[in-house]
Each structure stands twice: as structure tokens, then as C-alpha cells.
Amino acid sequence: MKAKQEKTERETGAAAGTPQGSSWNSRVLTGVFLALIFGLTIAGFFSPVRERSESENRTLAQKPKFTLASLFAKKDEDKYTRKYEDYLTDQFIGRDAWIGLKTRTERLIGKKDINGVYFAADGYLITKTDASSVDAETEEKNIARLAAFVKKYSELLGEGRVYAMLVPTAADIYADKLPAHTEEYDQEALLARVSDLLGNSFVNVRDSLLAHNGEYLYYRTDHHWTALGAYYAYRAWAEALGKSPRGQEDYSVSTGSGEFYGTLYSKVNLPMQADTVTLYDDGRAYRVEYDMNGKPQNSLFAMNRLTEKDKYMVYLDGNHAVSHIRQQGEERNGRRLLVVKDSYAHTFVPFLAQDYDEVIMVDFRYSKMPVSQLIKLYEVTDILFLYNATNFVQDDNLYQLER
Predict the structure, then answer these.
(1) Which of 165, 345, 173 is closest to 239 using CA atoms?
(2) pLDDT at 378 over 70
(3) Using alpha carbons only, what angle is made at residue 395 by residues 391 and 401, rounded to the nearest 5 degrees?
(4) Distance, C-alpha 269 to centroid of its chain
(5) What does the pLDDT read at residue 330?
(6) Which of 43, 75, 253, 276 is deepest in the core (most CB within 10 A)?
(7) Pairing state of beta strands 382-388 and 336-341?
(8) Shared domain check, 285 and 389
(9) pTM higher than 0.85, yes or no?
(10) Continuous segment of H or E residues that includes residue 368
């Protein structure tokens, strides 16, 4: 009788999920989890170390060299442990698939932004620049630096020769597409403040972009503006300089690619509609040299870049320290424009290139040559400072405006 009772209790306990039953389930789950972790770790040892992620369009962290100095470094980004953590994260096997899985999971729980990207209306991904993330000190310094730069070179080159253009990003122009209750950095207030400081030297393109914000001014999957957005900005620039802007009919407009997936797509890695890259060709002949390499190209468009992941590089071959554009032909006006820029200038410069004998573009992320030296070297007559607004207030390289 007692043996029968004990048997009944064991059967009842297992069926009811008592510790004996749950213990078995826990062991199975733990075993599966450990097998997955160890399996991925072992697979990682045999996987080649990747230098670059085409999907994310960036260089991946490499295995750091161990030193005592790096182990006890004061700055977090210089510490060996931090660098090794970045290396493991970047080289994790199946990284792209895990990014997509993470995005799906966070979308299911209702997150408005993932990896610094908003899932906005009409199929747009828009870069998040939270107001609290902008360092006030850097912002103030960069505004002061730009004002001093414009004043200094206006006195050197003459009035009407130096201009600044801060381009609002999609988060401002497409604000109606953002999720509700976002706390985005106030680009409108920034532009108004800089405009007050610079007066006629500031080119306001925001009004022009807002007037056309129902159009395809920014890519859905990338943080840049499209050629159409740059064209409307070009019209505002020409009018600010007292020029008659050229119409779209004055350009040969063609589709470079209809299969562009940009930087924001790479951060979420979910299926989306591809972007279209459009080229506006003015029909003129140019000689373009990058980084003084002695290998000039004969077009403003690097068509070979359309076969790569980052098709935005078709515009003036992407980022370079110094890009030198020379217009070919007999017409000369003696004007040589220096463009101090970020990558928003690449789409914009093809619209104004024919107005100058030469255009020199400098990117402070890659060049340490002082502006004063560039002006002498290329006999510059005009200057345009062109950045997107949120990049401008966060860029740590603008101390070079003072050199």
C-alpha cells in the first residue's frame, strides 16, 4: 500500500510540474543554451576576421594588441578591455542576421527608435539626434568658430565671397513623419541663431526644402539628401548670390541606380524598398583629382561606385581629404571656390561647378592642411562652408577653422 502511494505521488508530481519535472526542463534548456554559446564561440574561432562590413558600410574592429598601458588606460575608448569587447562584437558570427533579429524583437515591444534610427512614416528611416545627446560646449564652440571664420575670410577675400550653408536633415524637414513624442534637436532654432550671427553670409535653404517637403528630398534608407533636395538648395544658393538659378531642364537627368540601400538600412537590417540614385549632368567637361594623387578623372560622377554597396559615393567618389575640380574649355571667370564640407556637399557641388573655373573641396575628417594654406595653394577667391546641421553641432574637427 505504501509503495503504491509513493508511485502515485511521483507520477502526480511529474505531471503537475513539481521540482522533479521542472528540473529536467531546466537542464534541457541550459544544455541547449550552452551548446549554442559554445557552438558560436567555436565557429567564431574558425571564421576569418573581417576587415569591413559591406552591409553596415564601415570598417570593423580588429583584434587589439595587448599592452599594460592599454590595460590601465584612463580613457575608456583607449582601454584594452573596451577594444577587445568591440572586436568581439564586430566579429561575432552571423552579425548581420543578429542585427535583423534584434530589430524585429525591439519593434515588437514598441520601441520608436532602434540603433539611433526612427521608423518613420511612408517607409522612411530617419536618423535620431536626441536634444539631450548634443554636447552644449561643442555646439557653442562650433558656432563661434564658424562666425569668426566667415568674418576673417570675408575681410580677406571681400564681401560677397564667403558663405555658409547649414542643411537641415530629414528629422527637421520630414518632422511630420517622425513617431509621436520624440525629443529631436531643434535645428530650426540653430539655423535662426547662425543666420542672425552671419547675416547675408548665411544661405537659408530650409525654407526652400520645406516648400517641397512632399517630394523625394532625402533617401528612405540613408542619412543623406537626394540630388533633388540638393537641387532645391542650389536654387536658394544662387538666389542668395544674386544669380539666376538654372532649371532642371538645363541638366541631363538620369537614374544611376534603383537599388540603393544606405547607412540607416544597415543599422536595422530589415527588408525595405530600395532608394533611387539620380544624376544631374550639366554636360560640361571636368577634370577631377582626389587627394593630389595625379590620377585625374573626367567626370563629377564615379560611375564605378554604383556597383558597390554605398552608391552615394557615385557623387564625386565619396569622401576624400581634398578633391580638386577643374572645368575644361575656353570659358574662364577667374573664380576658384573652396568648399569646407561634410558629405552633404557631394550631391550639391555638381550644381554649381560650372560657375567656377575650379572647385576645391576639403574634408577636415581626413585633411589637416590649414585653410590658409589651401587658399594660397589654389589661389582661392571664394569660400562656401557646407555641413548638415546636426553634424555641424557635433563635429570635433571644426577647431581647424581657426588654423
Answers:
(1) 165
(2) yes
(3) 115
(4) 16
(5) 75
(6) 276
(7) parallel
(8) yes
(9) no
(10) none
